[in-house]
Design brief:
The structure is a single chain. The protein has helices at about 15-30, 35-40, 45-55, 85-105, 145-150, 155-160, 175-185, 230-254, and strands at about 30, 60-65, 70, 105-115, 115-125, 140, 190-195, 200-210, 215-225. The protein is α+β, with helices and mostly antiparallel strands and about 250 residues long. It has two domains: about 15-80, Orthogonal Bundle (Arc Repressor Mutant, subunit A); about 85-254, Beta-Lactamase. The longest helix has 22 residues, at about 230-254. The radius of gyration is 18 Å and the shape is globular.
């Protein structure tokens, strides 16, 4: 069995976790206000302000004359082109919230960069036992639902080139990955049963741009105890409809 991708530390320091999540948001979106940060983290404005002040002090953030925060010198390389992910996230969020309302499970949106994926939006459901937010997290693409969807867009030659470079970290079995991606192209969806995290099942579909290329992966995640394989067709149908609505809104926003 695959090991889990991310295991929370035994002594989670919430202030550190909040600060790192803010840094990830600044990387992805470019600009945030104190109110936006407070709402996203579910904390008071005073808490958000203190967290941002510390990030400014350590050069992870800067505040401009409009009192808006953006990525600072430490993050500036990642802040050069945040607009595409920011726009995608802004258009997608209403659709993610509607999906949670329909499915009562947590949903995510992720994009690929090289052989990794970054979760740019995550909405948790209200159930006491649920999959937590993945927003801002980065994982190996071949171990996630969205990553597999986006890797399936590549040709065998592009896939070979992607994994040819000698870099640290886990590498997939090339033949096994090609077989899996070929199956995914036929079905049009990805099913992840415990591959990313033990006890979690995720189902996802691609979100495509006007040119037909996949921009992101849209997925729903749930504890494996609530997954019923007989519901798989209906879950895929709901996700596909949501992806289509999101694609239409993206086209209109252009």
């Amino acid at each position: 069995m695959d090991k889990p991708l991310k295991t929370p530390p035994p002594y989670l320091i919430h202030s550190v976790d909040h600060a790192l999540r803010i840094a990830a948001m600044l990387q992805l979106e470019g600009e945030l206000t104190v109110s936006e940060v407070a709402e996203r983290l579910g904390v008071a404005r005073s808490t958000a302000h203190r967290l941002l002040a510390m990030l400014v002090y350590r050069d992870f953030a800067v505040q401009d004359e409009r009192r808006v925060y953006r990525a600072g010198p430490v993050l500036e390389l990642a802040a050069h082109s945040p607009s595409a992910a920011s726009r995608l996230r802004a258009v997608a969020l209403p659709h993610l919230h509607r999906l949670v309302g329909v499915l009562d499970e947590s949903v995510n949106l992720a994009v690929r960069t090289g052989d990794t994926v970054r979760f740019i939006a995550s909405v948790e459901c209200a159930q006491s036992l649920r999959v937590g937010s993945r927003e801002g997290m980065v994982f190996p693409a071949h171990r996630t639902t969205a990553g597999l969807l986006l890797l399936a867009e590549l040709s065998d030659e592009e896939l070979e080139e992607l994994y040819a470079a000698e870099r640290p970290g886990e590498r997939p079995d090339p033949a096994g990955l090609r077989t899996e991606l070929a199956r995914l192209r036929r079905t049009g969806f990805a099913l992840n049963q415990g591959r990313s995290e033990r006890g979690v099942v995720a189902i996802g579909v691609p979100v495509r741009g006007p040119d037909g290329a996949a921009l992101a992966g849209l997925s729903v995640s749930m504890p494996s105890g609530r997954y019923d394989r007989h519901r798989l067709p209906s879950l895929v149908d709901v996700l596909t409809r949501a992806a289509g609505a999101l694609e239409a809104d993206l086209a209109r926003s252009d």
